[in-house]
What does this fold into?
Amino acid sequence: MGNGEAVARNLVATNPGLEGGSSPRPYSIFSYSNSTDYGHTGVVVGVQDDESIIIIHNNADEKKHLMVSLVPKQTYTLGNWYFAYVGESLR
It folds into this structure.
């Protein structure tokens, strides 16, 4: 799958028929580059009316704790997040 910043794009590239893009959908896998060489990835579990998103993710630190975060639209839009739309594949 690659580093965190490449997971969503790699999912789309290696699974014919799977789509991706810059707009989040519930149950999509997200990836983005951050200040590390590894980037970050997780799962969108909800999209709010104001287009903020609820995500589940964790960090590769010694704690390995699962986090739930609310991310405003401005953050994922300006941060060049990419979303792999796997929600339909889960049915």
